[in-house]
Amino acid sequence: MISTDEPVELGPAVRALDAARSVTILCHVQPDADTVGSGLALALVLRRRGIPVRVSFAEPAALAVSLRTLPGAELLVPPAEVPAEVDLLVTVDCGSAGRLGALGDRLAGAGTTLVIDHHRSNTRFGAINLIDPDAESTAGLVARVLDAWGEEIDAPVAHCLYAGLVTDTGSFRWVRPGTHGLAERLLGTGIDGAEISRGLLDTHPFGWLPMLASVLGSARLAPGVRGGIGLAYAFVRRTDLRGLGAEEVESVIDIVRTSAEAGIAAVFKEHRTVDGRWTVSLRSRNSGPGAADGVDVSAVATALGGGGHRFAAGYTAHGTADDILAALLAALE
Ligand code: 5GP
Ligand code: MN
Description:
Layout: H1 11-19, E1 23-27, H2 33-48, E2 53-56, E3 86-92, E4 110-117, E5 128-131, H3 138-149, H4 155-168, H5 179-187, H6 193-201, H7 208-217, E6 220-222, H8 225-228, E7 231-236, H9 246-256, E8 264-270, E9 277-284, H10 297-303, E10 307-308, E11 312-318, H11 321-331
Parallel strand pairs: 1-2, 1-3, 3-4, 4-5, 7-8
Antiparallel strand pairs: 6-7, 8-9, 9-11, 10-11
Helix pairs in contact: 1-3, 2-3, 2-4, 3-4, 4-5, 4-6
The structure holds guanosine-5'-monophosphate and manganese (II) ion (MN).
């Protein structure tokens, strides 16, 4: 765990990037806009400097539809095209080596490794670790790296960074001093913030609506959890997923977590193909009454083999729906 008052030193990261002959950037599995936006922003700058660069993630095979229009997406390569030995390996938005999935083995073959991340549970698995748990997004941390490096944030880079910023702040709901200042700077490059947000957050196929009806219809409230803090939860089953993408699945937790009666929310998401495998999203209330002693779901997720942030975390679970619910309830005791 990183203490939040540890100063964040940008120098080693900047020097590693500046000295690199070629760079491989890895995003986390089930990549979201913060990991892909941060990775592509960095890749665009490196390409501009004439440095060979590739970006990859282990799974799933295809990038979420809403991320395919990010500038620099052509720099993404399939995991099989990431050689066993690379020069500088940079991971973005990954709290642990496990978040690299099958690409985790590339760490050993790298000349040097740079970890850029904002997860509280970060395990500091790089040779150079640029980790700021106070950063609202990894994209914001990348912006600081580019400033320290003296590299301009032009419109394509700003587009990628804005994508990470707007999604990791929940459309600027979870903000800190500096968040809006960065947004202002990025928008000042001429990018269309409204259009980027619409594509990332407000666009779903029609099938999203019946999926929500089914999933939310089976949501449950367990008011006694954690001494009365309460848990609201729902299951997204494989049969609910037909024809829908990651954006639709990931949207569910944002609705479940609005339940006023519960300080904790969970969504159990069944794997599309592997029987008995689920990914779990956890959230806890981070403002309002009682928030000062809000539940640290990062610690709960870490105990269950995952990790994350104090108020947003996740893990992978195995078993029946009843098994995994029981395991979470036990961890929340
Ligand atoms: P989400 O619910 O959006 O998938 O994840 C919430 C937060 O927890 C994200 O910041 C994500 O990086 C982290 N997280 C989700 N699943 C895992 C996991 O299996 N391992 C770790 N270390 N972090 C996770
Ligand atoms: Mn992030």
